[in-house]
Amino acid sequence: MSDGPDSPVLALLRRIDGKIDRLTDDVQDLKHRMTSVERQLGDLRSDMAGLSARIDRLEVRIDRIERRLDIVAA
User: Fold this and answer.
1) Which residues contact 14 (CB under 8 A, 6 or more apart)?
2) pTM of the full predicted structure?
3) Which one of 4, 16, 23, 25 is least enclosed by Cβ atoms within 10 Å?
4) Exposure pattern of 19-56 as b/e (b: 16+ CB <10 Å)?
5) pLDDT tens digits along 5-54
6) CA angle, corner 28, sides to 25 and 29, nearest 5?
7) CA-based diameter of the chain, in Å?
C-alpha cells in the first residue's frame, strides 16, 4: 500500500459514502418525527371523539331543560 494520493475514483467513492451516511441519518430522523406526528394525530382524533360525545350529552340535557321550561321552539 502506498502513502501517495488516493486515486480520483477512490476519493469520489469516499465522498459518495459520506453523503449516503448523512442521508441515512436524515431519513432516520424523518422516520422518528413522522412517527411522532402520527401518534399526535391519533391522540387528536381521540380527543375530538371525546369532545363530540360531551357535546351530544349537553345537547340532550339542553333539550330536556327546554322541554321542562316549556320553551321549545315550534
Assistant:
1) 6
2) 0.63
3) 4
4) eeeeeeeeeeeeeeeeeeeeeeeeeeeeeeeeeeeeee
5) 679 999 999 999 999 999 999 999 999 999 999 999 999 999 999 999 99
6) 85
7) 100
